[in-house]
Amino acid sequence: MIKAPVNKIIPSSVVDGPGNRTAVFFQSCNFNCRYCHNPETINMCISCGACVKTCPAGALSIKDGKVVWDEKKCCGCDTCIKTCKHNSSPKITYMSGIEIWEKIEGNLPFIRGLTVSGGECTLQAPVVRELFTIAKQHGLGTLLDSNGSYDFREDPENLLDVSDGVMLDVKADNEERHMWLTNHSIDIVLQNLEYLASVDKLEEIRTVCIPGGLENEKTIEVVADILKPYLEKKNIRYKLIKYRHFGVREEYRNFVEPDEAYMNSLKKLAEEKGFRNIVII
After folding, report:
1. Torsion of CA 240, 19, 166, 221, to 10 degrees
2. What domains lie within the chain, and their CATH numbers?
3. Which of 184, 193, 46, 71 has its CA nearest to residue 123?
4. pTM of the predicted protein model
5. For 209-229, what is each residue's pLDDT tens digit?
């Protein structure tokens, strides 16, 4: 039975796709975004033990050289996450797709769909596929919230067969800025952008907006140019996300939070480039 590291499950969310949804956040990401608002999801725990000493509830211990988390004792204070110097969390549960489903199936009367995120959810593709297959059998919508590093054109794990669509992050406009921001190439992201639109699996585009060096205007222009053949026929949502300091690592909090005027200027540009469904959050 294949299992994946689950960071947390939010039973009810209205920001992780349309309608009320359950959101599953997996641990581990192959990007290292400077403005990441959940840096504790980037790496796997290396069991250094620093968090064990600081846990006020005694919910952490070391057994056989590994940090072990006792969920029943945990008070949810996140002292362990604040202590960790490795962009990780000891509060991880390894679960199969079936086990995740058993955890969330009680939400069925109240939710419209299921969204998987992270970290980067496609790194756990076999478990996501298993989970989505079950969800589909119960009539739920299924969405992937992805950084775009998985090759959806080849789709080796057949994720698109069980997914309604992908909420795709497009973080920058060119290789230089994308590498500086994420430590990962932009090529596969832009290839996925075009491909997902061509097979009607692009649920929305997401761009975190920061005034200045990232030049979000150019990102919008690049996205619009790639999607130009599809925008007239498809009402593709573009979500413009305000950068906020909350949760960001201390060394990267020198970014400027955008004001309303800046965000509205980006929205206007997106409208001029052909987008009809633009959301600022």
Report:
1. -20
2. 4-40+93-280 (3.20.20.70), 45-83 (3.30.70.20)
3. 184
4. 0.95
5. 999 889 999 999 999 999 999
